[in-house]
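It is worth pausing here to work through a concrete case rather than discussing structure prediction in the abstract. The textbook approach is simple: state the sequence, then state the predicted structure, then interpret. We follow exactly that order.
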Amino acid sequence: MSTVGLDVGAVRARFSALDVPTAFFDGPGGTQCPDSVIDAIAGYLRESNANLGGAFATSRRSDELVERAHERAASFLGCRPEETIFGPNMTTINFALSRTVARGFRAGDEVLVTRLDHDGNVSPWLELARDLDLTVGFVELDDDTTLDLADLERKLGDRTRVVAFPLASNAVGTVTDAPRIAELAHRAGALAWADAVHFAPHGPIDVAAIDVDVLLCSPYKFFGPHLGLAYGRTELLRSWRPYKVRPAAGEPLGHRFETGTLAHELLAGFVAAVEYVEQIGWEAIRAHERAIGERFLAGLPERCTLHGLPTMEGRVPTFAFTVAGVRPRSVAERLAAAGIAVWDGDYYAVEVMARLGLAPAGAVRAGFVHYNTAEEVDRLLAALERL
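Step two, the predicted structure:
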């Protein structure tokens, strides 16, 4: 079955990884890669594998690839190429950039994070607080898992330096009002520091429209290889003193924060992943995801309790639920035996699970992306009915 505007069969034909009986609802932990991404990685290793700055052909091709990867990153995030930064993963980049900005912090300064965050945008600030005698405050959730913006307004103060928040929850799928959060942060003189890891496969990102100062995401969540990607506003990147080796070039600007040699073959895969998403188109992706998300919500068995928004308004198609009388791990194992891949646990969303009273076992998480089909959703619902 296809949603108008998206030929799901044609999409799936581009993924050899999907040519198996498994229904992959594990996308929130990492999506499958289209063959074009795999071919780009292998092609680089066969034809261009070299370090940068050499006079010979493979090195020149590697130089061109790095430049092209930053250009594609800029088109994906809505910024300039020199404002993009690559690294091994989002969390590693976040630890590095948070320590960089904190060179200008003083004891008693404050960072606000949210109960909706993945811990990759919480623990870097908690560790900084231990090192520098900072304060970390938590913005609360409403009962429906939306962020309490009134609580954010109350907690902002003249010592708040950063407001760190997600564009979408990796646990319950809730989308935040990112432009409003950025506006409130800036009004208080704080930086808006966004985690877009979970939102990135579900909709377009425009850092200028959101008006964030820093944004981080992970290409392996949007059909690419294991990498981290960040955006930093030009004025900020120029004002920060980076942690880097002395001979490393300071230009392009984002390069100051790319320590060591990048994984060039993965950059080739990243370029192919962005090109793939652009070929499919966000309008078709979002329409299809909404349709299969609504299908899931309408058919969820009564003994399953959904934790999060009950409709597709204000969310992405990521669903956390529990099954009466069955532990989340047991649900995941029994679904796996039926050829259905889901997650269980807390998915590093420590605060969300605590707020919902689901710790330590967490919940079952099924995450849909555009290569999932209505028939696969029906398989999942039928399997849950049989539990």
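Step three, interpretation. The CA atoms of residues 139 and 154 lie 9 Å apart. The mean pLDDT is 97.
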